[in-house]
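Lab notebook page, bench 4
Experiment: in silico fold of construct C2
Operator: M.H.
Input chain length: 291 residues
Purpose: comparison with the prior construct
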Amino acid sequence: MRGRLFRQLVENNKEPLSIFGTVNAYSSVLAKKNGVKSIYLSGSGVAAASFGLPDLGFTKLEDVVEDARRITSACDLPLLVDVDTGFGSLNSIQKTVKLLEKENVAAIHIEDQVDLKRCGHRPNKKLVSITEMQDRIKAAVDARTEDDFVIMARSDALAVENEGMLLERINSYIEVGADMIFPEALVSLDGYKKIAQESSVPILANITEFGKTPLFSKKELHDAGVSMVLYPLTAFRAMSKAAEKIYKELSSTESQEHMLGEMQTRDELYDYLSYHKYEKEMDDILNKKDE
């Protein structure tokens, strides 16, 4: 069901669908209540926010599934999940799809790096062969039980090989069933245009800060044929910077009173969490017990 909604949002938008990273359940609630239509769970976000580790393959399938479950339980927006290389064998890829489908995830993207993968905007990436990546995609497609569940293929070929190989890889991934494509670390709008001219499926642009890809506008990307714009860790970076500032200042001052204007209030938190509704339900139960 959420996969179908994700597809509709991608197909029906007059501009690219904005997909926002949410590193936990509360972030997803904030996103929905502020007009976001689709959300994202980053592998890097899982590693950093849930484990305090870099994005170098430390986290496991179970870690990603647990964070996804918490998000989809709190928020019904369609969730795209980063499953890296699929966590091992073809059987592991199929297990990944089945588990995330069960948790109401709308879409996944799987990449063509080797299992000891790197962040897409770091050097020294290595790729598997086209055939091996096709096998990954076929395994994922065969494992899904809902046709609307989206299998997106990510390729890091531009940085590792060249533009020609990126196009060859993308077309080969589409041939075996990839529903959408994610060309990573592109450096020009012309790169997206060339892919759009040759591709028959929607394209995602990863507009991550401080990476290889310039911060193109949504209009520029739309004109280049892009269907989705991903902001994977934008909110997390802002949240982390704000928290860092508070920790530094409060460790050397007498009171947080001068910082109150930078904080979400208790009432605002309660409003986002529907606190008073749950509290009333609890009171009703207690009152019935007393009768």
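Observations: The longest strand covers residues 150-155. The mean pLDDT is 95.
Next step: discuss at group meeting.
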